[in-house]
Every structure is written in structure tokens, then in C-alpha cells.
Amino acid sequence: MGHTILPADHPDAIHLAANIIRTGGLVSFPTETVYGLGCDALNPIAAAKVFEAKQRPRFDPLIVHLADRSMLETVASFVSPTASQLIDAFWPGPLTLVLPKRPDVPDLVTAGLPTVAVRIPNHPVAQALIREARTPIAAPSANPFGYVSPTTAQHVYDGLGDTVDLILDGGPCPVGVESTIVSLTESIPELLRPGSLSLEEIQAVIGLIKHTQTAGETEHMPGQSARHYATRTPVIILPTQGEWPAPQGSERIGLLAMSTPRHSTDRFSAVEILSPSGDLREAARRLFAVLRKLDGLGLDCLYAEPCEEIGLGLAIMDRLRRCATPS
Ligand code: TXA
Ligand code: MG
Predict the structure, then answer these.
(1) Is residue 45 within 8 Å of residue 57, measured between CB atoms?
(2) Which terminus, N or C, of the chain has the lesser number of Cβ atoms within 10 Å?
(3) Does any domain span residue 216?
(4) Domain that holds residue 107
(5) Is the predicted pLDDT of residue 147 greater than 60, yes or no?
(6) Domain count, the chain
(7) Is there a single domain that holds both residue 187 and residue 301?
(8) Which residues form the pocket of ligand 1, taking CB atoms under 6 Å from any ligand atom?
């Protein structure tokens, strides 16, 4: 490991990181959801480096991160009353809004779309970095395209190594699954990606919201390819009810359980429990780290127990399903 990882509370860390952003480099930083791979959102050459480092296809746009509300007008051209309501209720926090963009935002960042995705992360390190850099920061999750998102600085280093100029280590991400993305470009708001802000919380503020659920239907959306967040080990989602299929013969199978298993787990080669008490927040926080751990064991297959799709459960099942989609 090189000197790429720096503790975020080192006295020079934020200053150093902000300088890298301002001079067109790449900094990975923690947010409350996952680690981002950040660059100056107004610098197309820096944005090109992000796509390069992640091996990300150019049709998949980036989320632009702001330090505070006053930065919004530098990237978005119109904020509707519904957008304002959501901003007042949930920023800073894990809600990304898709709004009409200003011409200053490079086409590469938005993949040529007339819209820009924006959020204010609820994390002191992210906010300090953006403020010190004095520019919005475009950042996808800091993982190679298609792989499981990173929730620690080490995960970032494992996936991207020295292609990142600096990784700010702010410890494990407190929320653990990505932001919820809502598009406000049509008359009815649309949920583009379930995330750590629940649909129920959003509905409580704005009422009606469109939600097209099946992976097939969202496939045309940028970045919503059915297979994503994927482990190298194949994943099979277990039935909600009835007996689990037991591992047969010499197959080495891992079990990802939501809570303390009700069935015998003797035949499994590895067992990980996301939350013994069945707390969805704990499950979400640990999901990606546990998937990475199981994926590192070289097993033949992983069985994943499903959870109910309410609250955070919607985002957890979305990630598991994409992970389980065959390539
Ligand atoms: O929690 C998060 O959202 C994390 C942290 C780092 O903030 N970021 C993240 O970024 O998950 P990423 O690149 O993995 O996902 C960004 C997704 C794209 O794949 C696309 O689906 C959507 O955001 N997106 C971005 N801009 C968009 C736009 N203009 N219209 C529609 N969707 C957009
Ligand atoms: Mg991602």
C-alpha cells in the first residue's frame, strides 16, 4: 500500500485534498452512504480521469456534491417548489435530485443529458473538502464499474489502487447504501434509484411519486443496468418462505443471512449475518463490506436471504437483485 490513504483528521488532510481537486486531480472521500471518487465538477479533463479510473462507460452520468444550498445555483438552472420541499426536508442527506442543469456543468459529467444529479452529503469530511475546494465535486462511488460499492478507505484502495491521487480515510460509512435518486424533470417526481432515504419518508413530504420497479424497465436509464454492485461469486436470492435449498455434494456455498438463521446452516462453508436482531439500518450499513468479505473466500456460490421491501429494505433488495443478475 502506498501513501495514498491519509486519515481525514490529519491536520493537513483537507487542505491537501482540496488542492488536488482544484488542480484537476482525483480524491476519494467518505460520505454518509459510500466513498466517492471526486473531482472538480466544472473541469471536464478531471471528470475524464474519473471515468478512466473506474472504467466507467461515458453514458453513465455522475452525481455532483455540494457543501451547502448556496452552491446549488452554480449547477442547476431551476429548482421547482417540489425540489425545494425535498431539499428543506432532507439536505444534507442521502437524497440525490435530478434537476435541469446549467451550461457550466460539462457534458461529460452529465453524460450529455440536459439534467444534473445533485446532493449535499451529510458527512463532515465531505462537507469540509467541498467547502475548502470552493467548487462542486462530481463523484461516483469509488469502485471499479459494476463492482460492489466501497464503505471503507481500504475498499477504495483495493479496487482503484494508485489511480486515485489521495484517499481520505474517515472510517466506515455510517449509512452504507447509496443515496436515493429522485428525478424532478417531469410533472410527477420519479424514483430513479431506491437508496438509504426511504420512499415512505419521501412520500410523507411530497405525496405522489412514480416508481417503475422492474430492472428491465429501468434498463434504459443511465447507470441502471440490471447487473451492478456485483460480486465475482454468483449470488442466488433464497425464497421468502419455506425451506432453503441445502448445499449439495462438494459445492462450497456461502450464506448471507439478514438476521439469525431459523434453519440449520451446517452445510454452508461460510455464514454472515447482516443484523442478528433484524435491524435494517445495521443490515444496510454492513451489506457491502459483508458481500466483499464473502466474495473474497473463493466460494462457488452465495445464497442471500431476502428482506421485506419496506423502508431501507427496498434499497437492500435492489442491490441484492442487481448483484444476483447473471452477466
Ligand atoms: O450515495 C451516493 O449517491 C454515492 C455517494 C458517493 O454520493 N454516489 C453514487 O454515485 O452512488 P454513482 O455514480 O455510483 O451513481 C450515480 C447514478 C448514475 O449511475 C445514474 O443512475 C444517476 O446517478 N444519475 C446521475 N446523473 C443523472 C442524471 N442527470 N439523470 C438521471 N440519473 C442520473
Ligand atoms: Mg456506483
Answers:
(1) no
(2) C
(3) no
(4) 5-206
(5) yes
(6) 2
(7) no
(8) 31, 33-34, 36, 60-63, 94, 96, 98, 110, 113, 115-117, 121, 139-141, 178-179, 181, 192-193, 221-224
